[in-house]
Amino acid sequence: MHGHDLSPSTIAVGAGRPNRVPGGPLNAPITLASALVPGGQSEYGRHGNPTWDSFEQVLGALEGGRALAFASGIAASTALFDLVPAKSVVVAPRGAYYGTVDQLKERARRGQIELRLVDMDNTAEIIAASESAALVWIESPTNPGLQIADIEAITHAAAKSGTAVAVDNTFATPLRQRPLELGADFVVHSASKLLSGHSDVVLGAIVTNSERAHKAIEKRRSTLGAIPGAMETWLAARGIRTLHVRLDRAEANAKELHKRLSAHRLISSSRYPGFGTIIALEVVGGPQVAQKMTEQSDIITYATSLGGVESTWERRRRHPGESESVPEGLIRLSVGIEDVEDLWIDIQNVLAATN
Prior knowledge:
CATH topology of the largest domain: Aspartate Aminotransferase, domain 2
EC number: 2.5.1.48
Protein name: Cystathionine gamma-synthase
Distance between the termini: 61 Å
Radius of gyration: 21 Å
Number of domains: 2
Organism: Aeromicrobium panaciterrae
Family: Belongs to the trans-sulfuration enzymes family.
Keywords: Coiled coil, Pyridoxal phosphate, Transferase
Structural class: alpha/beta
């Protein structure tokens, strides 16, 4: 028995493993079964799978709550939005992940909710908009503008009016930010990103420390059929084992690249929140040059995903659904764990080739 609180890195490695019994496996096995023998936690694959447990236990331990895995990040947010009463007010970021904002706008168009869009770095605006709201959706840092929200101030104000607060913690991860400790009711992840970390999984998750909320979300998952696969949850649990070392390395790379980008004559702006692996940059040549840059790099991959061991980048406004608040030429750079000098040479080469 350990006599002290374990560090997050130790929890990431050890939580969610099977009990230690002679001859037993060190890792949780993959259970490929649509039906289970009655008498346990579940007897049908849509309601539960032993392989989900490992991922949910380790993520829950890291976030300080109980986790539920979903088929994707969008599936997770859908389940949460489904709990919002009809005609209620939802507050959300203007410049957040467009899949989330688009889903909320669609619900607003149908008259299901009233949507109030705010800037995540304007705490006063968020608190004012939250009056009489059912849910405040926080994304911090935002995707891709990297705005930072004052989570504790927002949750403190929301608690006075009984407003629920959900935080998308995909960019920060529980190693850099624990929203439940700051007063949030829900934490949401696209586990496809940093948690799994190898660009081989599509997975989502919700974490809460309310038993009532946990049961309600679990029911929505089963009802919607938004369940994860056994292989996906197994891979994500394996990925979390190295989250701390991957994040430390990629974050160190991101800090160094941001420093160099900020001083480069062909970079008009470089934004970095001081932690995490994402940089938002703009080049002097504008959107056309930005697009060419992302397509011509050798080491950094031109791709829409993020949070993997490999560095990726893209011009975000190439997506029709991206918010108009995002500059046309903004490049979202997800920094990986490659050698930072190799990454810098790659960036310099494409800057020289396209300007």
